[in-house]
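Regression test case RT-17, inverse folding.

Input:
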């Protein structure tokens, strides 16, 4: 299998802190005029960490919030309501390791006629050992990439994420284009080029293999983001904005599966040197809400630094092959059912 940038968790943590200290912000800070009034925004993994902080900001800025979560029902929703002062918050069940759960959510949204203005695919895991999903795929691969492919395919196919221009209807006067935003990681940089033949093949791994795969799957995610942007906006006219952002190093639950000895180190570093989720959420909220992003697509932020992803992610050939591989894996494992 192709390898990610980091060979062990120490390297990942030190690089995150170094990049954070060296960042040169080139994006204006979020301000009170970045609003989401009247917009329906779904955030996955919104019960914890970065996703919870994004959810609070979305609700505080007037968005109708759908928190698509595996756990935290109903307390995370109540917490977001209390912190944001908004009651336009609802929770939906979503387990991204389970085909049935993904389709059940898509079915519910379609049946209700929900139209998403923004979908923030934030949920992610860093695993120290592999586990099989009910459909026989590796869990981290599924959560960090393939489930997003399946869920977004359904939302787009159902019109839950509307594609007005592509449907030949044009945008209604004054309407903004929908946006899809991925929570990625700058650790995608310098990963090996994608190896499409072994992608998604279940293999054993330990802590170091887990961190390597985590960063490699973010390369895969960014390649998908870029390909999705091309496919949704084939003629250069932007119909749906598709973006990705790395929040930088954040003190969250992401290392919950690390072995005990490593957790002591990680928790100390996270507490001392990493940002809070509230400090880390702005690039994701900006991509979802900022007026400057209207009509834009395929943009990438590393914290509040607007920059390019690893150049490999923009390759149309890599995007095409990734798409074909994802479709084949989804079909092989019965994920469309
Ligand atoms: N922390 C960092 O330093 C950092 C840096 C760069 C990028 N990121 C990215 O930020 C995103 C959020 O991570 P975090 O740091 O905020 O960690 P976190 O607190 O552990 O949050 C992860 C979220 O993903 C959800 N999730 C995991 N597996 C799921 C599944 N099978 N189905 C549905 N939801 C699932 C979790 O739900 P449960 O609570 O139910 O497990 C949780 O809500 C991830 O994409 C991560 O890669 C984090």
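Golden output:
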């Amino acid at each position: 299998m192709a390898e990610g940038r980091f060979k062990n968790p120490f390297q990942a943590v030190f690089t995150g802190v170094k990049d954070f200290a060296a960042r040169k912000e080139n994006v204006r800070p979020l301000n009170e005029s970045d609003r989401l009034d009247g917009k329906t925004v779904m955030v996955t993994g919104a019960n914890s960490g970065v996703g919870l902080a994004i959810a609070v900001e979305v609700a505080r800025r007037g968005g109708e919030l759908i928190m698509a979560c595996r756990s935290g029902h109903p307390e995370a929703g109540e917490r977001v309501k209390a912190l944001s002062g908004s009651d336009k918050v609802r929770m939906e069940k979503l387990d991204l390791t389970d085909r049935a759960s993904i389709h059940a959510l898509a079915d519910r949204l379609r049946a209700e006629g929900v139209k998403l203005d923004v979908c923030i695919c934030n949920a992610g895991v860093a695993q120290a050992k592999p586990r099989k999903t009910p459909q026989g795929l590796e869990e981290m691969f599924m959560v960090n990439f393939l489930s997003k492919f399946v869920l977004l395919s359904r939302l787009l196919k159902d019109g839950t994420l509307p594609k007005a221009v592509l449907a030949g209807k044009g945008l209604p006067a004054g309407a903004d284009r929908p946006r899809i935003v991925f929570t990625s990681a700058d650790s995608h940089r310098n990963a090996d080029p994608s190896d499409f033949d072994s992608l998604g093949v279940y293999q054993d791994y330990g802590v170091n293999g887990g961190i390597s795969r985590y960063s490699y799957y973010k390369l895969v995610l960014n390649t998908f983001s870029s390909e999705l942007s091309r496919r949704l906006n084939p003629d250069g006219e932007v119909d749906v904005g598709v973006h990705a952002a790395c929040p930088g190093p954040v003190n969250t639950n992401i290392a919950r599966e690390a072995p005990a000895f490593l957790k002591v180190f990680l928790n100390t570093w996270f507490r001392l040197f990493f940002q809070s989720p509230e400090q880390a959420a702005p690039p994701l909220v900006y991509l979802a809400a900022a007026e400057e992003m209207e009509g834009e697509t395929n943009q990438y932020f590393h914290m509040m630094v607007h920059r390019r992803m690893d150049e490999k992610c923009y390759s149309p050939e890599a995007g095409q092959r990734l798409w074909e591989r994802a479709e084949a894996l989804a079909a092989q494992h019965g994920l469309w059912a």
